[in-house]
Amino acid sequence: MTRHTARNRLAAGALLATGALTLTACGSGFNDTPGEGQASGSGKLTLLIGSSGDAETTAVTDAVAAWSEQSGVEAEVQTANDLPQQLSQGFAAGSPPDLFYLAPEALAGYAANGSIAAYGDDLANKDDFYPSLIDNFTVDGTFFCAPKDFSTLALIINTDLWTAAGLTDADIPTTWDQLASVAQRLTADGRVGLAFGAEYQRVGAFMAQAGGGLVTDGAATADSPENLEALNYVKTHLNDGSFAFASDVGAGWGGEALGTQKAAMVIEGNWISGAMSADYPNVNYTVAELPAGPGGKGTLQFTNCWGMAADSGNQEQARSLVEYLTSTDQQLAFSEAFGPMPSIESAADAWSAANPDATAFLAGAEYAQFPPNMAGAADVITDFNAQLESLKTGDPAALLKTAQSNLEAITG
């Protein structure tokens, strides 16, 4: 997942539900005329990506070109304006790309109708992927596709405001009580201490820290006592004014709230680094792991995989290209070019050395939850997000009861 991909989908209110689905791109969609190398068996590979911008498009295009020169197999990268829609259109027309960015919440539907190939177990580098990422792209025990990269959530702190409030590194919160305390101290001069999106893709981190989650071992657990404790904690501090939803401070997402200094701290993913350097280069910040809650440490992870069309006539070549694109060296090159964290453990040390100020994001991989990925989960999360917008004045128990009912309808 790229930083802006995640930003758009999360800030829009449904990273997983919609955000991750509303990937933006520079360029036009793919040609859905059969015979142009898409599911044609012509030997030419086509790739459809949802790009965060020129840096990502160039990096992927250059990597694919290098593989083509090495392998002798022609390949073309196409960028989508609306990836989910254009991918769906390609399948409907019988001419999908050979490879494409695929969000976890879209996997189950495509797997159920036989549209995508399950090639994960055939990858030479299968054992190098983080286990939680393999789980993210596993449906009914089958590992379908290679995670291309990933991100987690962390606590982003404006260091100038932190120092001005008389806080030091020793005050970086590691518990909910400490988070509430420093947020209160940082709430001043019309600025809120902590801001985050009014959506499960942010609030869900508190649920994880309480020991909860929307789905546990395939069963709906939205109305658990742990989740209720998490929402009550968030509601309490929304009402005392030390926490706020980004939209309530006039920001489109957490990065904007931090960059405009409408919030002293935000909860965001590692995609924030590119936005801060590009849009708010004079704002100094540090990154820390999210504080632990009653259930321990918790965060959420977000990712996409390299989906492969079941009807592709180039599956062997496509798998070879995926192995190249997810190799250690290539993932580190992608990270340097446009910011994502490598999805493979062998790149961890090199990535940490190159990004010493962002290691809190990688640390979260050890305990991160991923949003539900079964068919229908995107719609459930969209509804949940709409209700979370009124958490400050609403009834957390009633909100969770509705989410539970909706999840039970899709989990059985």
Automatic annotation (TrEMBL):
GO terms for biological process: maltodextrin transmembrane transport; maltose transport. One of its GO terms (cellular component) is ATP-binding cassette (ABC) transporter complex, substrate-binding subunit-containing. Keywords: Signal, Sugar transport, Transport. It comes from the Bacteria. One of its GO terms (molecular function) is maltose binding. PROSITE patterns: PROKAR_LIPOPROTEIN. Residues 1-25 form the signal peptide. It holds the Pfam family SBP_bac_1. The keyword Cell membrane does not apply. Belongs to the bacterial solute-binding protein 1 family. This is Multiple sugar transport system substrate-binding protein. It comes from Microbacterium enclense.
